[in-house]
Amino acid sequence: MGKINVARVVLGGLLAGLVINIGEFVLNSYVVAEESAALMERLGLRPIGMHQIGVFLAMTFVLGIVIVFVYAAMRPRFGAGVKTAIIAGVTVWIVAMFAQVADLVMGILGANLLILIGIWSLVEMTVASIVGAWVYQEAAPKM
User: Fold this and answer.
1) Three-state SS for 125?
2) Sign of CA dihedral 128, 96, 138, 57
3) Is residue 17 part of a domain?
4) In the 8-state DSSP scheme, what is residue 28?
5) In terms of residue numbers, what domain contains 54?
6) Is residue 140 part of a domain?
7) Cα 137 from Cα 123, distance rounded (Å)
8) Which of 52, 113, 117, 141 has the most CB atoms less than 10 A away?
9) pLDDT tens column, 62-110
10) How many domains does the chain have?
11) In the 8-state DSSP scheme, what is residue 68?
12) Region of residue 2 (phi > 0: left; psi between -120 and 50: alpha; otherwise: beta)
């Protein structure tokens, strides 16, 4: 069993994070912009500013790295390829959705918005995991 190629995890993860960030830009700027603004107003919060956006961007790149790391860790058991990438992406999506479900339980998010965000992010993370896995490869064994 080979060791995880950390450089390729980071490279693939940054590419996966870029895919997710593009998806999140479209989601938050066009698809749920009005609902998000109304939610922030209802909660008595100021609109999201550049500082928060910078933090979200960084978090999303880290999420991409985590997805590719999970893919790399799963490869010995499930094999390299799209199927394993999808399993890795869905696994990370399930964990990430716990926070969203908590927001639903607390009454912060409505069910319709949660479902929309959930489906959007499932597609987003699945595509990102496939793209990140495409970049990932094990280090060549030393002779």
Assistant:
1) helix
2) positive
3) yes
4) I
5) 6-135
6) no
7) 23
8) 117
9) 999 999 999 999 999 999 999 999 999 999 999 999 989 999 999 999 9
10) 1
11) H
12) beta
Distance between CA 47 and CA 50 in Å, rounded?
Answer: 10
Residue 133 one-letter amino acid: A
CB atoms near residue 110 (< 10 Å): 13
Residue with tokens 């479902």: 115
pLDDT at residue 140 is higher than 70: no
What value does the mean pLDDT take over residues 25-32? 97
Tokens (6 digits) for 18 = 């870029």
Average pLDDT, whole number, for the chain? 94
Q: Is residue 143 part of a domain?
A: no
- The answer to whether 17 and 64 have CB atoms below 8 angstroms apart is yes
Amino acid at 42: R
User: To 10 degrees, what angle do helices 111-135 and 82-105 make?
Assistant: 150
In angstroms, what is the C-alpha Rg of the chain? 17
The Cα 79–Cα 76 span in angstroms is 6
With contact defined as beta carbons under 8 Å apart, do 132 and 71 qualify? yes
CA 64 to CA 66: how far, in whole Å? 5
Residue 114 lies in a domain: yes
